[in-house]
TrEMBL record:
Keywords (A to Z) from UniProt: Acyltransferase, Plasmid, Repeat, Transferase
CDD domains in alphabetical order: LbH_AT_putative
Keyword Acyltransferase set for record: yes
Family statement drawn from the similarity comment of this UniProt entry: Belongs to the transferase hexapeptide repeat family.
Classification via InterPro entries: AcTrfase_PglD-like, Hexapep, Hexapep_transf_CS, Trans_hexapeptide_repeat, Trimer_LpxA-like_sf
Keyword Membrane: no
PROSITE patterns, sorted: HEXAPEP_TRANSFERASES
Biological source species: Sulfitobacter faviae
Signal peptide: none
Protein name, entry field: Acetyltransferase
Amino acid sequence: MKRSAADISHVILGAGGHARSLLGLLAACDLRLGGCIAPAAPEVGWPASCPWLGNDAALGRLDIARAALVNGLGSVGPTALRRQVFDTARKRGFTFPTLVHPSAIVAEHVALFEGAQVLAGAILQAGVTVEENVLLNTGCIVDHGCWIGAHTHLAPGVTLSGSVTIGSGVHVGTGAVILQGVRIGDLAIVGAGAVVTRDVTPGATVVGNPARSLARP
Ligand SMILES: CC(=O)SCCNC(=O)CCNC(=O)[C@H](O)C(C)(C)COP(=O)(O)OP(=O)(O)OC[C@H]1O[C@@H](n2cnc3c(N)ncnc32)[C@H](O)[C@@H]1OP(=O)(O)O
């Protein structure tokens, strides 16, 4: 039987900073909120409109047919936890809707896969592909023909020029700029404010302008 939007209760996985942004996103999209699941009760100030349903064990009490999950984990570097939360719930049969804030601008011929989140003010130009569980945070600009791999997070204010390819599980830090045609390898991290002029190898961390590998002792 087909589910209507009114039947579905959205449950946020997590209760931190990104989860709070999602409360606004769900409200802006006029979607029904069921609560949140997090290892411990949310901190004081967490809105009562989003009750804590319990820790991971609460997933087992949800009706898969009536619940849609929303990945409430952001990242400030490695994205492994965002991926783990998504993959684990998917294996159990849950689904993650694609969410696009009404203030975002999404051109024609943009492909958004399961669980992609497009936050307020983001702009996606023609021919962009956004794979599953990608987070495009507040005010990102993703220009024509870019491809963004699964589980990647573009932090607030990131700018991708045309035809940039970003691998899976990448974190691109706040305000970073990536020049046209550059390829960023899987699991790489781009530091906040970096200007990336050349391809980045998988797993590397780059910072600065022009971006260079972060030397580790
Ligand atoms: C809504 C939201 O909040 S979403 C989250 C937004 N936040 C982000 O995107 C944060 C992105 N993360 C960063 O930029 C981080 O600094 C990282 C991942 C690049 C590096 O983090 P760490 O590995 O912990 O590095 P650490 O802080 O130890 O710094 C190591 C060196 O790199 C330098 N460095 C760290 N980040 C940067 C940066 N973005 N640009 C330039 N230099 C940097 C530090 O100054 C330090 O230099 P030093 O050794 O000369 O003192």
